[in-house]
């Protein structure tokens, strides 16, 4: 889908027709979301730029992700988003910027792009230049990453309360399975944030080197330094959450093992408690003619009482030793 944004009479106008021109000329932002071959060819014809394909966007080499083509900077970053799967997903987004236009190419629906679009419709001043639009978009993306980290931190606090205060029971397999599943889901989200942070850090550095080509002002260059600091803070916070998640995972497995060991210990103690009665029953189960109690009228009652007394004595021993 192709959407072009232009400013007319102090308002942000959207259109899918690149042939339209407003009072200030062509669109300052062209957004390509999962574009068709025809849409890519149209943008290439109008702008004179070679739009990267989906395969080119996902390449990991730095030369494929950040490069300059004539008077335009091409920068690709990975952004997390909520896709059709239950686990967090990520999509590559390419930003092409010069003094005349900003072009974004994506094959997913990151929430940050939609948030930027809503802000742009409310405040047309954001579209005063492609550079201003790009800086605002990057600011929204970094804010979105920070929100994901804060959300993950809240999930970690909730899991800590559930594990250490409310407790989980190994007798209910769903309890610890859900706990481990939540730890894994939060860990995957932080991994997506780390991946996005790394690509955005590289993008910010490359953009600062090509600030003149992108038409960035002195204030916008200073804003880039602020974005770099924010990305560094997000990376450090994410690393701290990684450590907490590893601790929670180890603690969850450890607590389950402790409870299972307790259950096994109880079975072991019960088996030992019944060993003396079993021995007595085995002795009196022998068919010897000269057994003293064989012809005794109270022999059966004596053997039963002896078995019970031996079991109680063994149980009392374990209680004294605090093994039960």
From TrEMBL:
Classification via InterPro entries: CorA_cytoplasmic_dom, CorA_MIT, CorA_TM1_TM2, MgTranspt_CorA/ZnTranspt_ZntB
Location (main, coarse): membrane
UniProt entry keywords in alphabetical sequence: Membrane, Transmembrane, Transmembrane helix
Gene3D superfamilies membership: CorA soluble domain-like, Magnesium transport protein CorA, transmembrane region
Stored CDD domains: EcCorA-like_u1 (cd12837)
Pfam short name (any one): CorA
PANTHER family, per the entry: MAGNESIUM TRANSPORT PROTEIN CORA (PTHR47685)
Assigned protein family: Belongs to the CorA metal ion transporter (MIT) (TC 1.A.35) family.
Protein name per the record: Magnesium transporter CorA family protein
Organism per entry: Hoeflea poritis
